[in-house]
Design goal:
This protein is an alpha/beta fold. The strands form 3 sheets. It has a 6-stranded parallel sheet, with helices on both faces. Strands 11-10-9-12-13-14 form a 6-stranded parallel sheet.
């Protein structure tokens, strides 16, 4: 990525501030590098020794376009440093960003222990009054509780306040998103403090200043809405299959409505990643505990589970049975453009196919799955070698370029399931493949539904004023 590309550069500057960023994951590392680019002095604290050692060697532990150049530029300029020592990082700092993980517990609620530990350590290391700014995604009420909790850990005479400033970046476009936010949301109980946190960003960026629980809910509600959109798109695609309608035209037509918008209306194996499933279940839990259960959110969650099972069942029915069959799965990342496989539908699909008896050989251009049992190879044609079916599970651009004739030669079967809609249908059909998809390709369940119009026509043929029998 070229840093001369303005998409990856700060176009405006801000009043430089010394900031501590806690956690060097997708959110923390992006925030640390981009805040340095805006002109701030950033000290980034990371507890993971492997991650820290990689950063010390100027290696970026995650795949994120544009990030490596920013990190290199600002570690060289001295505006960005990495450490595991909270005391030195917090020395003289009045703003600390908490960017630690909030993974889901088995009951669906977020596990906030990393946040509690990081906030406590930061409060204890404070050398002046400090604002702890929560960028991690947390349920409404967390910032208020955190402020009460960490207050007792601060050195005598120092005040620790907690502000909500949720992060909205998309993995794979994190740097671009940082510099082009749809909105910066700052939730604080004091307008002076809100101004300090908002002042970390250029004043031209759209700002929503609100209460802490409002800010926390903006993030939860946004991700829940996106999840609902994806689940709805999958249900419309299933209906298109049943009715023989063209899914791309239907969802494309729906998305052109400015009130709806086309983003997140693409059918696929369902949503995954470290955010949508977790934030949806967090939203459901919060709504329930507030006595306002969300039927819409619950339905989106059920529909998402169904999407993956329906996909596996379609592959099974295309092959007759999955017992002992060899299947190539292309894509393991939860979406194209990232190396993140946390809660990836592609990985879940591999597991589901194996559960049904298949042997899976998988490929991903960037992502690596460390779990045992996932057989990953370095080349898509190697994955296809001898396979009876091939499934595209992540929409990497490079899968569009696959050569149908080479695939046909490599594979022993002729079934392709394009779960993400990246392949061109005709060339694969010409090469002798049966191409299945979600709402496109070979459809087996189409049943004519003419009875409805016919009944209406019969009724319309009655003389007016004659009651129906
Ligand atoms: N990944 C995304 O796309 C995204 C987008 C918006 C919001 N979020 C939210 O942001 C938060 C972070 O997400 P992420 O994907 O960056 O997580 P991550 O797991 O990639 O990174 C978290 C980092 O924090 C470090 N850490 C944990 N405890 C620490 C401590 N006490 N001190 C220093 N470092 C510590 C971990 O070692 C890890 O490197 C989550 O709440 C997530 O829901 C994520």
């Amino acid at each position: 990525m070229n840093l001369d590309d303005s998409r990856f550069q700060a176009s405006e500057s801000v009043e430089p501030t010394r900031i501590c960023v806690i956690g060097a994951g997708y959110v923390g590392l992006t925030a640390a590098a981009c805040l340095s680019e805006l002109g701030h002095e950033v000290r980034c604290v990371e507890v993971d020794a492997t991650r820290l050692a990689a950063l010390a060697r100027a290696e970026i532990p995650i795949y994120e376009p544009g990030l490596d150049e920013l990190v290199t530029r600002h570690t060289s300029s001295g505006r960005l440093t990495f450490t595991d020592d909270m005391a030195s990082a917090m020395d003289g700092v009045s703003v600390a960003l908490l960017c630690v993980g909030t993974p889901p517990r088995s009951d669906g609620e977020p596990d906030l222990r990393q946040l509690g530990r990081a906030a406590t350590a930061a409060a204890a290391a404070a050398t002046s009054d400090v604002a702890l700014v929560v960028k991690s995604t947390v349920p409404p009420g967390t910032c208020e509780a955190l402020e009460l909790f960490v207050g007792g850990h601060a050195p005598d005479g120092l005040r620790v306040r907690v502000v909500s400033n949720p992060e909205f970046l998309r993995e794979g476009r994190a740097v671009w998103d940082f510099f082009h936010p749809d909105r910066v949301v700052v939730g604080a109980d004091d307008s002076d403090l809100a101004r300090v946190v908002a002042g970390l960003y250029p004043s031209s960026w759209p700002l929503v200043a609100c209460s802490r629980r409002s800010a926390e809910l903006v993030k939860y509600a946004s991700n829940t809405f996106l999840a609902v959109k994806i689940s709805f798109a999958n249900e419309v695609a299933a209906l298109c299959e049943a009715l023989g309608a063209e899914t791309d035209k239907v969802l494309g037509g729906v998305g052109l409505d400015a009130r709806i918008g086309g983003a997140f209306l693409n059918p696929g194996p369902g949503f995954g990643g470290s955010c949508l499933p977790k934030d949806l279940s967090g939203f459901i839990a919060v709504a329930e505990s507030a006595g306002r259960p969300s039927e819409v959110a619950r339905a989106a969650q059920r529909a998402n589970d169904t999407a993956l099972i329906t996909l596996a069942a379609k592959i099974e029915s295309a092959l007759g049975s999955l017992e002992g069959r060899t299947i190539a799965v292309l894509g393991l990342a939860f979406k194209a453009g990232t190396d993140d496989t946390r809660f990836s539908p592609a990985v879940a699909l591999v597991r589901e196919l194996e559960k049904r008896g298949a042997h899976v050989r998988a490929h991903d251009p960037i992502a690596r799955v460390a779990e045992p049992g996932v057989h990953q190879v370095a080349d898509p044609y190697e994955a296809a070698h001898g396979a009876e079916a091939l499934v595209v599970a992540t929409g990497w651009e490079q899968y569009r370029e696959l050569d149908p004739l080479r695939l046909r030669e490599a594979m022993s079967g002729h079934v392709i399931m394009d779960a993400v809609g990246v392949l061109a249908i005709e060339p694969l059909r010409d090469a002798g493949f049966d191409l299945y998809g979600i709402g496109r390709g070979l459809v087996t369940s189409f049943a004519p539904v003419l009875w409805r119009p016919l009944e209406w026509m019969l009724d319309a043929g009655q003389p007016s004023g004659v009651a129906n029998p």
